[in-house]
Write a structure and sequence with these properties.
Layout (H helix, E strand, L loop, with lengths): L3 H4 L10 H14 L10 H21 L2 H11 L13 H19 L3 H27 L6 H32 L1
C-alpha cells in the first residue's frame, strides 16, 4: 500500500494541512503529467502514469476527512478486508430501538415520527463525529502508546459511524 502521507512529504495525521495537500497535488499534476513524457521510453511513461494515478488517489483520500480516517486506520493495520468487527452491546441495543422504530414506520408511515427518528440518528452521528475530532485533534502530539490507544477507540467510533450511515440510508429510503 502506498503511503500517501509519505508521498506528499507529510507526517501521518488525521488533520493534515489541507492547503499543503492541494499545493502538492497541483505540483505533482504538473510534474507527472503524461503529456510531458510522450517522447520517453514505455517504462518511463508507465512510471509517470503510475505516479499520476497515485497523486490523484492521494489527493482524493487526504482531502476528504472520512476517507482519510479510513485510510489512517487501514495504514496502521487496524482495518482488515472482510473484518467482522463487533460493536459494543450498548450501542447495538440503542440502534435496535431505532431499527425497530424504522420497521414500524415501514408498516405505518408517519412523517413526523420519521423526521424525529432522522434527528435522533443525526444527533448520535454528530456525537460520534465530535468524539472522533477530540481524539484525533492532537494525535500527532501523543506518545506512541497513547496513539495506539487512540487508534483503537477511533476504530470503534469509525465502525459505529459506518453503521449509522447505513441507518441514515434506510431512513432516506423510507422518506420517499
Amino acid at each position: 500500500m502506498t503511503d500517501y502521507f509519505e508521498f506528499y512529504g507529510l507526517p501521518l495525521s488525521f488533520n493534515p494541512d489541507t492547503a499543503f495537500i492541494k499545493q502538492k497535488f497541483y505540483e505533482f499534476c504538473k510534474k507527472y503529467h503524461p503529456d510531458f513524457y510522450i517522447n520517453e521510453s514505455d517504462e518511463k511513461q508507465a512510471e509517470v502514469l503510475e505516479l499520476s494515478t497515485i497523486n490523484n488517489k492521494a489527493y482524493q483520500v487526504l482531502s476528504d476527512s472520512q476517507k482519510r480516517l479510513h485510510y489512517v486506520l487501514e495504514l496502521k493495520g487496524l482495518l482488515k478486508e472482510g473484518e467482522n468487527y463487533v460493536l459494543p452491546q450498548s450501542f447495538l441495543m440503542e440502534m435496535m430501538d431505532i431499527n425497530e422504530a424504522l420497521m414500524d414506520l415501514q408498516f405505518d408511515p408517519d412523517a413526523v415520527k420519521l423526521e424525529n427518528l432522522k434527528k435522533d440518528v443525526e444527533k448520535v452521528e454528530q456525537g460520534l463525529s465530535k468524539e472522533i475530532l477530540l481524539l484525533t485533534d492532537s494525535f500527532e502530539d501523543k506518545t506512541t502508546v497513547e496513539q495506539d490507544n487512540i487508534l483503537l477507540v477511533v476504530k470503534d467510533l469509525y465502525y459505529r459511524t459506518k453503521y449509522l450511515l447505513r441507518l441514515q440510508e434506510s431512513i432516506a429510503k423510507a422518506s420517499h
